[in-house]
Automatic annotation (TrEMBL):
<dbReference type="InterPro" id="IPR005843">
    <property type="entry name" value="A-D-PHexomutase_C"/>
</dbReference>
<dbReference type="InterPro" id="IPR005844">
    <property type="entry name" value="A-D-PHexomutase_a/b/a-I"/>
</dbReference>
<feature type="domain" description="Alpha-D-phosphohexomutase alpha/beta/alpha">
    <location>
        <begin position="173"/>
        <end position="263"/>
    </location>
</feature>
<keyword id="KW-0460">Magnesium</keyword>
<dbReference type="GO" id="GO:0008966">
    <property type="term" value="F:phosphoglucosamine mutase activity"/>
</dbReference>
<dbReference type="Pfam" id="PF02880">
    <property type="entry name" value="PGM_PMM_III"/>
</dbReference>
<keyword id="KW-0479">Metal-binding</keyword>
<dbReference type="Pfam" id="PF02879">
    <property type="entry name" value="PGM_PMM_II"/>
</dbReference>
<dbReference type="InterPro" id="IPR050060">
    <property type="entry name" value="Phosphoglucosamine_mutase"/>
</dbReference>
<protein>
    <submittedName>
        <fullName>Phosphoglucosamine mutase</fullName>
        <ecNumber>5.4.2.10</ecNumber>
    </submittedName>
</protein>
<dbReference type="InterPro" id="IPR005846">
    <property type="entry name" value="A-D-PHexomutase_a/b/a-III"/>
</dbReference>
<dbReference type="InterPro" id="IPR016055">
    <property type="entry name" value="A-D-PHexomutase_a/b/a-I/II/III"/>
</dbReference>
<dbReference type="InterPro" id="IPR005845">
    <property type="entry name" value="A-D-PHexomutase_a/b/a-II"/>
</dbReference>
<dbReference type="InterPro" id="IPR024086">
    <property type="entry name" value="GlmM_arc-type"/>
</dbReference>
<comment type="similarity">
    <text>Belongs to the phosphohexose mutase family.</text>
</comment>
<feature type="domain" description="Alpha-D-phosphohexomutase C-terminal">
    <location>
        <begin position="404"/>
        <end position="453"/>
    </location>
</feature>
<dbReference type="Pfam" id="PF00408">
    <property type="entry name" value="PGM_PMM_IV"/>
</dbReference>
Length: 460
């Protein structure tokens, strides 16, 4: 059981002891620190914060704790209930709110939950802002409101519909072409809020959705990370239903992966590649993804005459780099699409709409579209951290060992070889070291990952 306190929020497993797990006391502690930070940003009579959650089992309990903590500080809460991370992000700006909290542990299993914290732009807090919240927790510098100054909770369950309306209004979402294509698509909503939002979007686009695990009970029917080894049921149903393709999202709907009409994975790395190809075919501009993402995005960007830039891992880092380079599309290779024309946040719903537009305009099936892109293969492995392990020292040793390869140490250690690369970094969300590799074949990518796991274990 684990509690991870970081600049990106608080994430942990439900139950157990205070300070060691995500208990009710820890939820109140960090919600109050966030509330104090919000109040410190701007002096005003009434601060407002949007709060929403995915469907995981602990969500309702944690949401009530968080909302009523904010109420106790005199903050007005807009309760959007069962929602998606990108929907809450958009609700912050639509409400002209001072911030937002999303209660979700993203791809983590059901025993996990987290407070993901937003600023008044509906974007994740940067490192300095996150550190201020940690400092408030350490100092206990929180003042609660007197009885006549308590906040209140207003329920607004319209934001998924409003989010979809904004997507339909985007110039590059070709609603007419999508409707003419008469697509049939299987949706795996992993029994969370994707099971609400994705079918609604598809129906609005004239697509026939076939629902798989779309009941938002929070009882995930498989590991919620949208990887091939977890998606056997979706892959089978796409074939059985003679569907055009399949869609899977994670519990909070900011990661997106596709299955082609043959029941084969499109490849989560290629979600961003395909959407970027479509956007760049209509809009001149640059792209950004993180250091752990495929080289294929660089290739597609350069084909369209743009410039590709790699950022440190983490949505806030990608967004910062996108703003600096005026990128028209970006995201993360784990299936996270960031389309600034809508908002600066990973958004599976806009990713689906742009992907459907691409398919409808090309009049090409999904397997043929995948075959049209440069082929790279990735291996994504991890090593569980043990108590007392000095990860920074370990990564320094790897940097020294491969100094002749000019390793990039912006975020962990990335070593670029002639036809492959390896990225080693400590996870921000789990007690693990991630080992990502890419090479011209799956066997080569796996072999490279295993080689570095062996080298790391030799140092440990």
């Amino acid at each position: 059981m684990t509690l991870i306190k970081s600049i990106s929020g608080i994430r942990g497993t439900i139950g157990g002891k205070q300070g060691e797990n995500l208990t009710p006391i820890d939820a109140v502690l960090y919600a109050s620190a966030y509330g104090a930070w919000v109040q410190s940003q701007r002096e005003k009579e009434q601060h407002r914060v949007v709060v929403g959650r995915d469907a995981r089992i602990s969500g309702a309990m944690v949401q009530q704790l968080v909302m009523n903590t904010l109420v106790g500080m005199g903050i007005h809460v807009i309760d959007v209930g069962l929602s998606t991370t990108p929907t809450v992000e958009m609700a912050v700006t639509m409400e002209h709110a001072d911030g937002g909290i999303i209660l979700t542990a993203s791809h983590n299993p059901k025993q996990w939950n987290a407070l993901k914290l937003l600023n008044n732009k509906g974007e994740f807090l940067n490192a300095a802002e996150g550190q201020k919240i940690l400092d408030i927790v350490d100092k206990g510098a929180v003042t609660f409101a007197e009885v006549d100054a308590l906040g209140k909770i207003t329920i607004n369950d319209a934001y998924i519909d409003l989010h979809i309306d904004e997507i339909l209004d985007l110039p590059l979402v070709n609603v007419e072409a999508i409707k003419k294509a008469n697509f049939k698509v299987v949706v795996d909503g992993v029994n969370s809020t994707g099971g609400i939002a994705v079918p609604l979007l598809l129906e609005a686009l004239g697509v026939h959705p076939v629902k798989l695990y779309c009941d938002p009970t929070g009882h995930f029917p498989h590991n919620p990370e949208p990887l091939k080894e977890h998606l056997g049921d979706l892959m089978k149903m796409v074939v059985d239903e003679h569907a055009d393709f399949g869609i899977v999202v994670d519990p909070d709907v900011d990661r997106l992966a596709f299955v082609d009409q043959k029941g084969e994975m499109f490849g989560e790395e290629y979600t961003l590649v395909a959407v970027a190809d479509y956007v760049l075919s209509h809009t001149n501009g640059n792209t950004v993804s993180n250091m752990s993402s495929s080289r294929a995005l660089r290739d597609i960007t350069e084909k369209h005459g743009g410039t590709y830039t790699a950022s440190a891992v983490g949505e806030v880092n990608v967004v910062h780099e996108m703003k600096d380079t005026n990128a028209v599309i970006g995201g993360e290779g784990n299936g996270g699409i960031i389309y600034p024309e809508l908002h600066y946040g990973r958004d599976s719903l806009v990713g689906i709409a742009l992907f459907l537009s691409h398919l409808a305009e090309l009049k090409m099936d999904v397997s043929a579209l995948r075959a049209s892109y440069p082929t790279y293969f990735m291996s994504k492995k991890k090593i569980q951290l043990t108590p007392g392990l000095d990860v920074d020292s370990l990564l320094e040793k790897m940097t020294t060992k491969y100094a002749s390869e000019n390793p990039n140490t912006i975020d962990g250690v990335k070593i670029d070889f002639e036809d492959s690369w390896v990225h080693l970094r400590k996870s921000n969300t789990e007690p693990i070291i991630r080992i990502y590799t890419e090479a011209p074949s799956q066997a080569a990518a796996d072999s490279l990952a295993d080689r570095f796991i062996g080298e790391i274990e030799g140092i440990i």
